[in-house]
Write a structure and sequence with these properties.
By secondary structure, the chain is α/β, with parallel strands linked by helices. It has two domains: about 200 residues, 3-Layer(aba) Sandwich (Rossmann fold); about 180 residues, Nucleotidyltransferase, domain 5 (2-Layer Sandwich), CATH 3.30.420.240. Helix content is about 40%, strand content about 20%. It contains 14 helices and 15 strands. Helix 11 packs across helix 13.
Length: about 450
């Protein structure tokens, strides 16, 4: 069968002609397609696609793209790899079904695991650990080399994937061959993580599309906007997030895997106590947001105490999504309640990007209380380092409360987390207590 693909037909034109029943016009699909066009036309040889589950990455890049390349050049040798041979052959079978309608195949070699075109090219399917002796690859596609959380968390399995990639797969590349690695991120030390930590990192182009948009989104989405709302809108994604928990959500859907024991903070560092010692000194530190319920960041107020023995106690955490007026009411009400505990100094973070007028308004509303603005300039991770050091030393304790679980979930995922407001508020409170006064956060770097 002669190819029906003209030399000038683009992938954008080819996809709806071949599979009109599928949607190819979504913004995130177009973004991935543009990256694949660079592989086809611009000499891009190393591409990673990090996209959440069920958002079409395999349909586009593992199934339709190799069929397109084989129609353009039936001499192309394609290798499709997955976590096992069964999945790899499933992909290969789909590619073959498309190619059979558009490219002449070799009638003597049409097995799902290894089939050829009449032009000498074809497709080989292989699972992680499987060999591809005797065949090179012009286009190698690795689609999710990890099957499960159990595998992802196993150092032995991660080593196995790495050894297979470096010793078996990589050695089969033809000159100028392209590799496309398609993943949802499972672990910071998964195959993508190891490559990006190696001396090969600069060779790779990374397309990273989180399910809910973060700052600097490559598609220009607003914060919290869904990647493909026609399939999974923000409420549907948030429901998935509640089911998965912070670690699974951050890894699989936001492409920001964190270690199970926490990235910067470890869960085991925090003792939960039933009562505070006497003679403590307290601050309440507010990290402001102005988002209505169900969207954006959280306003968080952390009440932290320092005891005479030098330990730090997180006594209470208030966390809410509120617009400006009810937020300000909450802060004033909290100050009144805090006064019943004794002397509490309130700090309001003046962060870059937050209008100074918002902080000034809150300070004016707190007339009669000890309240100060804290203007910060350094990044959140740097500001959190002193708190992390004291927590690791066992000097930061939590007062038992309903907020403990959510707080620990966020802190142990920080900084690989959508909402870091609790971490920011806690580090602000610590810096004020540890270093004293409104200049505390600016003095951290010298401590």
């Amino acid at each position: 069968m002669a190819s029906s693909l003209s030399a000038s037909q683009t992938l954008e034109q080819w996809l709806p002609a071949v599979a009109p029943q599928l949607r190819w016009d979504w913004t995130h699909t177009a973004y991935m397609r543009a990256a694949l066009d660079r592989v086809t036309h611009d000499g891009l040889r190393r591409l990673m696609l990090f996209v959440p589950p069920r958002h079409g990455k395999s349909e586009l890049a593992t199934i339709h793209y190799p069929a397109y390349r084989l129609e353009r050049d039936p001499a192309q040798r394609v290798v499709i790899a997955a976590y096992n041979a069964t999945l790899a052959e499933k992909f290969s079978r789909r590619v073959r079904a498309i190619a059979r309608q558009r490219v002449a195949l070799d009638p003597e070699r049409q097995a799902a695991a290894d089939w050829m075109t009449a032009g000498g090219g074809g497709c080989r399917a292989v699972g992680v650990g499987g060999g591809i002796t005797g065949q090179g690859g012009d286009l190698v596609i690795i689609d999710d080399p990890v099957k499960s959380r159990e595998e992802a968390d196993s150092p032995t399995y991660r080593d196995r994937v790495w050894d297979w990639y470096t010793d078996d797969l990589y050695t089969r590349l033809e000159p100028n061959a392209a590799i496309i690695l398609i993943m949802t991120r499972w672990h910071e030390d998964d195959l993508a993580g190891r490559i990006l930590a190696s001396d090969q990192a600069a060779q790779w182009t990374v397309v990273e599309l989180p399910a809910l948009a973060q700052e600097g989104d490559p598609l220009g989405r607003a914060l919290g906007e869904a990647l493909c709302p026609e399939r999974y809108d923000a409420p549907a994604l948030l429901d998935i997030k509640r089911t998965l928990g912070p670690r699974g959500w951050q890894a699989l859907y936001q492409q920001k895997p964190a270690p199970p024991e926490g990235a910067m903070f470890k869960r085991r560092w925090f003792e939960i106590a039933k009562a505070l010692p006497v003679g403590v000194r307290r601050v309440r530190y507010w990290d402001l947001a102005g988002a209505a319920q169900g969207s954006g960041d959280y306003t968080v107020g952390t009440l932290m105490a320092r005891s005479p023995d030098g330990n730090y106690w997180i006594e209470d955490v208030i966390r809410a999504q509120l617009s400006a007026h009810p937020r300000n009411q909450l802060i004033v009400q909290t100050a009144a309640l805090d006064r019943q505990r004794g002397e509490v100094t309130t700090y309001i973070e003046q962060a870059p990007g937050l209008a100074k007028e918002a902080t000034d308004t809150v300070i004016r509303l707190l007339a009669g209380y000890s309240a100060h603005a804290d203007k910060v300039s350094r990044d959140k991770v740097t500001r959190a380092e002193p708190l992390a050091a004291q927590a690791e030393a066992g000097n930061v304790k939590l007062l038992a409360g309903a907020w403990n679980t959510t707080w620990l979930d966020e802190l142990t995922a920080f900084p690989y987390v959508d909402h870091d407001d609790q971490a920011d508020s806690a580090s602000g409170a610590f810096n004020m207590l540890a270093l004293g006064g409104a200049r505390g956060a600016d003095l951290v770097a010298s401590v």
